[in-house]
Design brief:
The complex is a heterotrimer of chains A (323), B (260) and C (447).
Chain A: H1 2-13, H2 32-57, H3 64-90, E1 96-99, H4 105-118, H5 125-144, E2 170-171, E3 188-193, E4 205-209, E5 229-233, E6 245-247, E7 259-261, E8 268-270, E9 276-279, E10 288-289, E11 291-293, E12 299-301
Antiparallel strand pairs in A: 2-3, 3-4, 4-5, 5-10, 6-7, 7-8, 8-9, 11-12
Chain B: H1 2-20, H2 38-49, H3 51-54, E1 61-66, E2 72-75, H4 82-91, H5 113-125, H6 142-152, H7 154-157, E3 164-166, E4 169-171, H8 179-188, H9 203-217, H10 232-254
Antiparallel strand pairs in B: 1-2, 3-4
Helix pairs in contact in B: 2-5, 4-5, 4-8, 6-9, 8-9
Chain C: H1 2-13, H2 16-23, E1 26-27, H3 35-54, E2 63-65, E3 77-79, H4 80-90, H5 95-123, H6 131-153, H7 158-172, H8 178-186, H9 195-226, E4 240-245, H10 246-271, H11 277-280, H12 299-307, E5 313-315, E6 318-321, H13 324-350, H14 366-385, H15 388-395, H16 399-443
Antiparallel strand pairs in C: 1-4, 2-3, 5-6
Classes of the chains: A alpha+beta (323), B mainly alpha (260), C mainly alpha (447).
Chain lengths: 323, 260, 447
């Protein structure tokens, strides 16, 4: 009885309202096969989505990332396929025409007129505009001035500063002091200034030992390499990467000469002659730090670097490094 | 026109492969009567395979000497390099080296195990030198190893030990290096590699480094296909050749018109 | 139910006329018109996955000792930023999936924009009245590059830290004001103060997404206001746009594309590893790794930085132009200047100031296509040079040799490409004329 009532009422409700109006979307034939495909795809999408939840919840499943991604991705893929099938097979694909928009000269003229009439009462329009614009510009600049607090925009002196000066001891990653006797040939060491912040470009050094006869340092650096031990800034003068490569020949007649190399753009520096650029885009030689060996055999800096440390900027050659 | 293009494409693909893999020299095996001590056998093998570049008694040849066939004789002295260096160069196939000017690379070892032992014994006998090391990586710490590797090795060998470029040379990938080979290389500093002594990297630290390198061969690779641990270059290739290809294909399926 | 919703919206917002117009809005149909949508849906995925990541990421450089499960980092001092990213990747369930999807989405987002840009360029869609739309698109590309760079640099891992040092150096290299800009942005010499992390974070998480989102809305609105361009056909003309309406035809297709983008990105995010930062280790100023590269969309810059020969331009002691300026700043600035100037340049040279709603097939504009191919070839060769070290390691081609070869090819190949492309366009056009004539002859009645 209830079923009968519902059925009858339903028939009334389902009567199409647009009987009297013309169709907007042209009619098309149904495609039950396509509908079945879409249904199947929806079911697959549902199962995959459920799999996501199951995989997430079930810890015992290994490679969670892969299974989660596979399940989630496939769920979307099935949904996508379903939409595409609907688009191509189940909705009518009409080809409609519409006008491309044009310009509206009459409205444009009206707007021009509006602007002109609105300013009718002004006698010195240009002067007022200039004054207003001036106020606006300077106010804009005023609003921007706190931006200057973001950093030392005018004061570039810290770019010259390094933690090295005469007497500072060289320490390794663990903080142990370097003894000259610990420094061997054919290898390279990273050194830091004792008691200084290591995370600055002026801090890390690369230290290498040569036989004194192998060195051809510039004349004014005769004492900079005691016992053949040389130290350079570890920061490449091209773009600031750490110079983490050292190339040393086992057999000099067939192998290239020793060099410090940066892994970013392969700037190659000659460690025997003051850090000259052998290859690569660096525009400045590697700054060298003068060393001294003190009474207890410890390695100390004998001054600051031969030049400013790190990548070049407009004042990099204007001044030497400061301690 | 199409054939020419195919030929050019083939040439471009094959040429680099050919350039990278020069023909291996082959070795001369020497038969000795049973009971010959290894050093003596080694001397004979040395004479047949190594003397052209390394000179008699391994003294080295420092100015090029025109040898048999096309071979130029030029090579360092082996006196005092010890078993350690000989073992490394021979077991990796770095030696014998056809052209003294080319970089020694890991290659197929053509000597037998006993021949290798004989050669190593001979080279060790040329002068007092370091023994073959016996590292114990299981005693090392992975965290210390990663830190030490980053500091001393990653600049050339790349952080995941996949190898890299050093001006004029290749720092090889370490995926085939055994613990003993790693220890030997670190202490010997083959070819252009620095030589790290016990003073710089203690044996305990070396154990940690070896443990890390061994780990890096099969690291924790969560998240799917690891693309060789090389970073953004293969990632960019995947972006275009998998991601974009799939998405453009989807556009082609969706878009009703394909041709303009 | 639909009619109830429609009634609700019309009563509350007067929206029925808008919906009627929107639902019957006409979209011309071609596969290449969907590339912009691919970018759009990638952006949606980026925002969704990005929000999830912000729920875990700690934008702070404060040192913290790692006590987690990943042994190579156990007991080491890391920044909170790096440690929280390791946590997201290795400890938080589904964290790695979301993080990898986010990163793949960024790579695909820029790739889709580039493809879309190429389509716009080679079909002349940037011509009036759509030049403003084009400028907004270019602006979005620049912002997307910056957004991606900041995103992967937030993590404070070894690879991206090296990339920040390079970015700093490029800023420093700007003539006259470089050091001042860099000091301002970084709050002092590199690596800057802790504020720099805050700046990267707020730029990446708030400012740039809002900017890009706003520009997307403007961009799409402009496209809708002027209707999409189309290729010529019998019905499709300068005055009439022909295509399928939003509803019921276009919506399921668009939705299908959206789901497909989500599918591809989540599949990649789950199945293909990207940026395994736990393997790279934390960043320190004194450390570097071989083979460090930026994400693909900055590869053109590393190529340029590697190819420029070694020189700083100096005047006495004053360093006028440090080396990284050419590759890192001048090169991309020039590229974008050309792209921005192109519509105006083309109008000036061709004298064509008319509106264009019809697209050119690339062959129909031989000069534009040829110059475009040459220009993009130039950029592409510089991009390839960035991976020369890998090519040496893989194929044994000498690095120095490659550098010299690239320095030559980068000028020679674009010129060659220009002439070859122009010739191809002209040949294709000539071929069509011949084809038309042949058909006419065949249609003639046999005497």
């Amino acid at each position: 009885m209830i079923a009968f009532v519902v059925l009858v009422l339903g028939r009334f409700r389902r009567r199409p309202r647009l009987d009297s109006k013309a169709r907007i979307v042209p009619p098309g034939v149904p495609d039950r096969r396509a509908e079945n495909i879409v249904l199947l795809l929806f079911v697959c999408a549902t199962l995959c989505a459920a799999a996501v939840i199951v995989v997430y919840a079930w810890d015992a499943i290994p490679n969670q990332t892969q299974f989660l991604g596979l399940a989630l991705g496939l769920s979307f893929a099935f949904l996508s396929a379903a939409c595409i099938v609907i688009g191509r097979r189940l909705v009518v694909t009409e080809e409609l025409e519409e006008d491309y928009g044009t310009t509206h000269p009459e409205e444009e003229e009206t707007l021009d007129q509006l602007a002109a009439e609105g300013g009718d009462r002004f006698t010195r329009k240009r002067l007022l505009v200039v004054a207003g614009a001036g106020a606006g510009t300077v106010l804009g600049a005023a609003l921007l001035t706190p931006v200057a607090s973001l950093g030392p925009v005018l004061d570039v002196s810290s770019l010259y500063r390094t933690p090295w000066r005469r007497g500072v001891r060289l320490v390794d990653e663990a903080g142990r002091v370097f003894l000259a006797d610990d420094v061997e040939e054919d290898t390279f060491y990273t050194a830091y200034p004792e008691h200084a912040d290591r995370e600055q470009m002026g801090a890390p050094l690369v230290v290498v030992r040569f036989k004194p006869a192998e060195l051809r340092l510039p004349e004014d650096r005769g004492t900079w390499a005691p016992d053949g031990i040389v130290a350079y800034s570890k920061i490449c003068t091209h773009a600031g990467c750490a110079i983490a490569l050292y190339r040393k020949p086992t057999f000099a007649p067939v192998e290239p000469k020793p060099a410090l190399i940066c892994p970013c753009h392969y700037s190659t520096f000659d460690a025997t002659n003051g850090g000259e650029v052998l290859f690569g885009p660096a525009g400045r030689p590697l700054p060298q730090l003068p060393l001294a060996i003190d009474g207890s055999g410890e390695l100390r800096a004998a001054g600051n670097f031969s030049g400013a440390v790190g990548p070049s900027w407009w004042g990099v050659r204007n001044h030497g490094p400061r301690s | 026109m199409r054939r020419a293009l195919t030929l050019i494409a083939l040439a471009l693909v094959c040429a680099p492969a050919a350039a990278a893999d020069p023909p291996s020299p082959g070795v001369t095996h020497v038969k000795v009567p049973a009971g010959t001590p290894p050093v003596a056998w080694g001397a004979q093998l040395f004479g047949a395979n190594c003397v052209t570049c390394h000179g008699p008694n391994g003294q080295g040849i420092l100015t090029p000497v025109r040898g048999v066939g096309d071979q130029t004789g030029l090579g360092p002295s082996l006196v005092g390099v010890g078993a350690r260096a000989a073992d490394f160069y021979l077991r990796t196939g770095y030696m014998p080296l056809d052209d003294p000017h080319s970089q020694p690379r890991r290659s197929r070892v053509l000597f037998s195990q006993r021949e290798l032992a004989a050669l190593v014994a001979y080279v060790a006998s040329l002068g007092p030198g370091p023994r073959v090391p016996s590292p114990q990586p299981e005693r090392g710490s992975l965290a210390d190893g990663q830190e030490s590797f980053t500091e001393h090795c990653a600049g050339c060998h790349q952080i995941a030990a996949e190898g890299g470029y050093v001006t004029n040379a290749v720092a090889p990938s370490l995926d085939q290096a055994s613990p003993v080979e790693i220890a030997e290389a670190v202490r010997t500093g083959p070819y252009l590699m620095p030589r790290f002594s016990e003073k710089q990297i203690s044996n305990a630290e070396l154990d940690s480094v070896i443990r890390y390198v061994t780990y890096a061969k099969h690291p924790d690779d969560r998240g799917g296909w690891a693309l060789g641990h090389l970073g953004p270059v293969p990632e960019g290739l995947v972006t275009w050749f998998i991601g974009i290809v799939l998405l453009v294909a989807t556009c082609a399926v969706i878009g009703r018109r394909f041709h303009a | 139910m639909i009619s109830r919703t429609v009634r609700f919206l019309d009563q509350r917002a007067g929206a029925a006329p808008f919906f009627r117009k929107a639902l019957r809005y006409v979209f011309p149909d071609h596969w290449s018109f969907l590339l912009g949508e691919v970018a759009l849906y990638s952006f949606v995925i980026l925002v969704g996955t990005g929000i999830y990541l912000t729920l875990f990421f700690k934008p702070s450089l404060a040192p913290v000792v790692y006590h987690g499960d990943y042994l190579p980092l156990r007991g080491r001092e890391l920044s909170e930023a790096y440690q929280s990213t390791v946590d997201i990747s290795l400890r938080i369930k589904a964290g790695l999936l979301i993080r990898q999807t986010h990163h793949w989405a960024a790579d695909v987002f820029v790739a889709a924009i580039v493809l879309h840009l190429l389509r716009i360029f080679f079909t002349g869609a940037f011509r009036k009245p759509r030049d403003l739309t084009y400028y907004i698109g270019l602006l979005m590309l620049i912002l997307a590059l910056l957004e991606g760079y900041l995103g992967y640099s937030l993590v404070d891992d070894l690879l991206s830290g090296m990339g920040l040092a390079i970015g700093y150096s490029v800023a420093m290299s700007v003539p006259f004001i470089g050091a001042n800009i860099a000091q301002l942005l970084w709050d002092g010499p590199f690596p800057g103060s802790d504020s720099f992390m805050s700046r990267m974070y707020v730029a990446h998480v708030l400012v740039l997404p809002v900017l890009i989102g706003t520009l997307i809305v403007l961009h799409v609105t402009l496209v809708a206001a002027r209707h999409h361009t189309q290729f010529i056909s019998r019905r499709a003309t300068e005055k009439k746009v022909v295509g399928m309406p939003t509803f019921p035809a276009y919506a399921p297709r668009s939705l299908g594309l959206a789901f497909a983008v989500a599918a591809v990105l989540f599949l990649m995010g789950g199945l293909i590893q990207i940026n395994p930062i736990w393997q790279w280790g934390p960043y320190h100023v004194s450390q570097a790794t071989n083979g460090a590269q930026p994400d693909w969309y900055l590869g053109w810059l590393i190529g340029a930085l590697r190819l420029v020969p070694s020189f700083d331009v100096t005047v006495g002691h004053y360093t006028l132009v440090p080396n990284p300026f050419w590759g890192g700043a001048a090169f991309p600035t020039f590229v974008f200047l050309v792209l921005f100037a192109w519509p105006a340049l083309e109008r000036r040279v061709t004298g064509d100031h008319a509106f264009h709603n019809l697209l050119d097939r690339p062959r129909d504009a031989p000069w534009r296509t040829a110059i475009g191919v040459a220009f993009f070839t130039w950029i592409f060769i510089v991009f390839l040079a960035g991976a020369a070290d890998r090519m040496f390691v893989l194929f044994g081609l000498s690095y120095q040799g490659q550098v010299w070869a690239f320095r030559v090819l980068v000028w020679v190949l674009p010129v060659a490409a220009l002439f070859v492309t122009k010739r191809i366009c002209e040949e294709l056009q000539r071929g069509e004329v011949v084809e038309v004539r042949r058909k006419l002859v065949e249609a003639e009645p046999v005497a």
